[in-house]
Structure to design on (384 residues):
């Protein structure tokens, strides 16, 4: 733990001087983490206890598509990775401009990526509680760590924008070609099913331990390749927001983000006709669709908070966003549900079942937020 934070609440790579803070990024990160931390349960509980049609509809939107397809909840994870990319020009670019050596920055970037991989293994398995054969090594944190790490290294060592765009296109086209053309033993080439995809076959062949879906892991090693492109999309957006000059008016930046997001959606849904949109495989079409919605979300938050200066409402989410990784892993060693029952179960007992059920979820979220607010007021933020 440390008691300071960077301009984009990303881990420091050197002793930073004060830099311009992108408040909308903290708020968007907190908005994203709110649903991961339990916010989606509000709709699931409402659907279960009331039977309302709109509650069932919303509850379905907050579930993952089983295989091919896309729902809003499928964007939660890639949005978080996208935002790690957005922060890169602020956290890394500012240090480059101050003369910090690339070698030193690369060392810090790689160290952070590997630490996130280790934290993901601990999050999945605990400390020395399972034999290696029963451990799951892929994880959300590992995907963020590895994809973010390679995205930042591309940003660091290939500063030419055209080369970065070439990397982005090459990753998506190369992954598409590999998934469609390289045969899988017993299945053939281009079979994008749970049992026969190239991504699953590679993960089964090289990863130790167990996979989340036995024969496939949605955070596996091979599908990290297109996830690097998700981080690069964030980097491109962050470079735009950090840019200066006569064409850098904030309204213009918002417009460019909107146009970029729409372009990604058009390309992604079109590509999905031949390479299905699939989060489990993190297909190239999924990368563009999730990236397009992520860019549009960033544009909305940026326009409201940083352009129009309407930011009071965002404080709730900012508190979450400033300690997003902490609240993600804290549930493994802090019993927030017990605390929520301790403080609120007696009061909720006076209400009807639907109110008690929703109230229990809100109480759980309130305890988590109060914990984060305490850390926020003390200026304590987890920085890897």
């Amino acid at each position: 733990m440390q008691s300071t934070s960077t301009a984009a609440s990303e881990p420091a790579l050197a002793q930073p001087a004060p830099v311009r803070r992108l408040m909308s990024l903290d708020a968007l990160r907190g908005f994203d983490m709110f649903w991961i931390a339990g916010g989606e349960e509000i709709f699931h509980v409402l659907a279960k206890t009331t039977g309302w049609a709109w509650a069932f509809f919303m509850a379905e939107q907050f579930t993952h598509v089983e295989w091919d397809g896309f729902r809003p909840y499928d964007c939660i994870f890639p949005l978080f990775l996208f935002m790690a990319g957005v922060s890169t020009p602020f956290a890394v670019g500012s240090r480059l401009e101050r003369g910090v050596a690339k070698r030193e920055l690369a060392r810090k970037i790689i160290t952070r990526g590997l630490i996130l991989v280790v934290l993901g293994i601990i999050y999945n398995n605990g400390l020395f509680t399972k034999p290696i054969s029963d451990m799951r090594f892929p994880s959300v944190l590992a995907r963020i760590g590895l994809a973010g790490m390679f995205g930042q290294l591309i940003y660091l060592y290939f500063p030419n924008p055209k080369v970065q765009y070439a990397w982005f296109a090459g990753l998506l086209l190369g992954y598409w070609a590999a998934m469609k053309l390289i045969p899988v033993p017993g299945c053939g080439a281009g079979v994008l099913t749970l049992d026969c995809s190239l991504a699953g076959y590679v993960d089964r062949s090289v990863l130790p331990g167990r996979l989340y879906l036995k024969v496939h892991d949605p955070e596996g090693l091979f599908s990290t390749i297109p996830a690097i492109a998700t981080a690069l999309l964030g980097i491109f957006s962050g470079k735009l927001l950090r840019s200066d000059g006569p064409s850098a008016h904030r309204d213009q930046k918002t417009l460019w983000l909107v146009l970029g997001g729409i372009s990604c959606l058009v390309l992604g849904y079109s590509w999905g006709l031949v390479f299905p949109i699939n989060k489990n495989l993190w297909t190239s079409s999924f990368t563009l669709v999730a990236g397009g919605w992520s860019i549009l979300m960033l544009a909305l938050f940026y326009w409201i908070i940083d352009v129009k200066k309407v930011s009071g409402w965002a404080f709730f989410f900012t508190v979450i966003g400033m300690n997003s990784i902490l609240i993600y892993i804290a549930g493994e060693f802090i019993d927030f549900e017990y605390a929520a029952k301790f403080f609120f179960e007696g009061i909720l007992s006076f209400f009807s079942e639907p109110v008690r059920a929703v109230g229990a979820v809100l109480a759980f979220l309130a305890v988590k937020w109060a914990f984060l607010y305490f850390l926020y007021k003390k200026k304590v933020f987890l920085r890897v």
Observations:
- The first strand starts at residue 183 and ends at 184.
- Residues 265 and 289 are 5 Å apart (CA to CA).
- The two ends are 8 Å apart (CA to CA).
